[in-house]
Amino acid sequence: MVTSGMLRALDPDERRALFAHERAHLLGHDHWWLLTAQFSAAVNPLLSRLPATVDYLLERAADEHAAEVVGERRLAARALAKAGLAVLRQSPTEIGLSRGLALGYGTSAVSARVAALLDPPPRFRRSAVVLLAVAAAVVLGCAIDAGQDVERLFELAMLGPR
């Protein structure tokens, strides 16, 4: 969500970064990821910190996308900082119900996100991708094996005692 206060606070290049950030949320269908995390936390209280973590990571991914689109990490960081300040300066009546929906611009994570944008871009780690693929294969294998075990148990149960 973009507020009128954000648009007034940003110059044209910064607005381009802001819109690239918001477009990244739309292209990535981030609302579904966040909804899934919130549902998971509602079902399993041990996952109560998951929605905040997913929200932060989605914001960081959108920040990186915006920096890539505008071609300058410092510009994206400046746009993020100014948009965050603009949200904090607006009165609740100006923003209406959207204060909490301003896609993380008014949260405390803004300073960490700006700092991350001022650092060099994150490196692609092939080992992490390989590890994730192996873990997914192991989980899939376990699920298939468990399904076969359950099928055998049902077959034994259908035979019943003799």
UniProtKB/TrEMBL annotation:
This protein's cofactor list reads: Zn(2+)
Q: How is the cofactor bound?
A: Binds 1 zinc ion per subunit.
- Protein EC: 3.4.24.-
Q: Which UniProt keywords apply?
A: Hydrolase, Metal-binding, Metalloprotease, Protease, Zinc
Q: Where do the TM regions start and end?
A: none
Keyword Iron-sulfur assigned: no
InterPro entries named in the record: Beta-lactam_resp_regulator (IPR052173), Peptidase_M48 (IPR001915)
UniProt GO molecular function: metallopeptidase activity
Q: Peptidase M48 domain: from which residue to which, for each copy?
A: 2-33
EC supergroup of this enzyme = hydrolase
The entry assigns this protein to a family as follows:
Belongs to the peptidase M48 family.
Q: What's this protein's name?
A: M48 family metalloprotease
Its organism's taxonomic lineage begins at: Bacteria, Bacillati, Actinomycetota, Actinomycetes, Pseudonocardiales
